[in-house]
From TrEMBL:
Name of the protein described by the UniProt record: Glutathione S-transferase family protein
InterPro entries: Glutathione-S-Trfase_C-like, Glutathione-S-Trfase_C_sf, Glutathione_S-Trfase, Glutathione_S-Trfase_N, GST_C, Thioredoxin-like_sf
Originating organism: Piscinibacter terrae
Domain GST N-terminal residues, every copy: 1-76
Domain GST C-terminal: 81-201
Gene Ontology molecular function: transferase activity
Swiss-Prot/TrEMBL keywords: Transferase
UniProt keyword Transferase, yes or no: yes
Length: 201
């Protein structure tokens, strides 16, 4: 199995999961290689992550995470439980449609720009984004009351999906201090070794 990655939030989810599950894979850092014809044949979006496992080629982190769980026999993706699948899918979709958009500008300005050396954060662009972030943080905060994880009363790929950008909430100056259930959940995930340090050496 090969997993192509760059140091960004979507590959982070896949790398952390592969490490957490103890999967044997070749991790190929792809900075500067994603615009090549060879890579485009694997992933026409020319983005990361991409996974190749024999004849199976997958892109999109959520699909790759589900595949890795099936391969490892892990119920972090509940392949054999349709009701739990629906619950996980609900949160994967909520992330993509609401949460990722709400936290994404903060993540971009403070983390992406620093990682890829594309200038300082534009803090003046962020105040208008605060109401939307707080709106959806309140939804997640309420949901996490009395819960350790987002779905199925255990760690699932939904946790890794939702935490991918929010993990950096302090460095990215996301105004999440008042949402104590969210920050508690993020701090708990940070205690998982593979999530705290997912990057290949």
């Amino acid at each position: 199995m090969k997993i192509y990655w760059i140091k960004a939030q979507a590959p982070r989810r896949v790398l952390a999961l592969a490490k957490h599950l103890g999967l044997d894979a070749e991790f190929i850092e792809s900075n500067g290689k994603m615009k090549t014809p060879e890579y485009a044949r694997l992933n026409p979006n020319m983005k990361a992550p991409t996974m190749v496992d024999g004849d199976v080629v997958l892109w999109e982190a959520s699909a790759i995470m589900a595949y890795l769980c099936i391969k490892a026999g892990s119920d972090m993706w509940p392949a054999n439980n349709p009701a739990e699948q629906v619950e996980v899918l609900r949160w994967l979709s909520w992330n993509d449609q609401h949460w990722a958009k709400a936290v994404g500008d903060f993540y971009f300005e403070h983390i992406v720009k620093a990682t890829f050396h594309i200038g300082p954060p534009d803090r003046d662009a962020l105040p208008d984004k605060v109401p939307e972030l707080k709106r959806f943080a309140a939804v997640l905060d309420h949901h996490l009351e009395g819960r350790e994880f987002v779905a199925c009363q255990r760690l699932t790929i939904a946790d890794f999906q939702l935490a991918a950008m929010a993990h950096y909430w302090r460095e990215a100056e996301m105004p999440l201090q008042e949402f104590r259930q969210v920050t508690r959940w993020l701090d708990r995930l940070a205690q998982i070794p593979a999530w705290a340090d997912p990057w290949p050496r």
